[in-house]
Amino acid sequence: MSGNPIAEDRFTFEVTYADSQHTVSIPFASGIGRSSNSFFPSRPNQNVQTLLISQHGMGGKALDYLQNGIDAAVAAGVAPQALVVAPQWVDVGQAYSDTSSESYDNLEEVLANEPNLLTWDGGRFFGARSKPRSPDYPARASSYHVLDRLIEDATTSGRFPNIQSVVIVGQSGGGQMVNRYAATSQFPVSRGFQVRYVIMNPGTYLYMGPRRLSSGNSFPYQMTTPTEEMMATAIAASNNPNQTINQLSEQYNRYPFGLEPLNNYWYLSNANLSAEDIRNNYRSRRVAHLIGENDNNPEAASLPRASRAMLQGAHRLQRADVYFQHLCGEQVWGSAHAFRIVPNVGHNGRNTMLSPIGLQCMFGEWPTDSCRSVIRDLDPPELAERGWFNRLLGAAQNLWREGNARLFNRH
Prior knowledge:
The protein is of the alpha/beta class. It is about 35% helix and about 15% strand.
């Protein structure tokens, strides 16, 4: 099997599993300045002010996302102060699948020599726990717990004492990861540094309520709890056309697509997170949603096509638009949130990171967008289906009356 190399460095830490302590590790690559040599976690550096965690998507291309992060720091003029760390989430199910593009040059050798290396068989982007390696090495860890530990190590070990900002950026599947991690992360942020979550071109999102896209091709979209017709359409367009409407009705709003229930993922249940906790987390955090203007191909090979995904829109650009409106309608859009369409960019993480808005979100003055700055007269979900039109008409009538009143008052 040939493909991506497994990154050479290891982030090693202890986990408690079955009442015992176990040492586990994941591959990663890191660099500072223009160098992709190993800097984390072994080399102290007082110049580092930003920790950039650059997340790959499907394909496991950690080395590519290390280079993307380094090049972005250079382009932003902050390379000597930016520590870039690219974790590698090895999904053995994908690696050994005949239908997956994910493969690794040296996977068998690494697995044979490192029995404590964490690997996944699905769910890595959603916080799932790693799979048990063997009866002798049964320890498991959530991918989100690994992120918690990695951030904690970098910011509390004393090796990088001047970190002011932690940036977690992810493309495609990595973007799906950052979206869910922003809502569920348990890492305490009251330690004197800023945390930024930058979501790039994901295929699906974590919904904060039950409503999904009903109709429309632009703002404002019509959103409603899925009807049988909506679910039948989503199933017919999905990669599982034999699914029943009852099955989809029971599954579409479960995590990681919704908030019902939350006990099927260990990271969430262990933290005893409620749906309201997750909404409050997401609302209060600094989150940027970036989507390529040309990431609009409904036939893209990598587009998630499960029926639950199809309920979110036909392609990534539409899914991003609809999700923005959803967050506004559910009153989960926060004062430190941003939503930007990246001009002349398709489904490309490097180009998104190196775009002006990508660089700004990672290293510059944080952008913010209000719901009304993007969607005029957006209705909360409890208003009537055509309430947006009535409000727009009413606003126009009021302006007309006010204009006439000013005219009459002058005579």
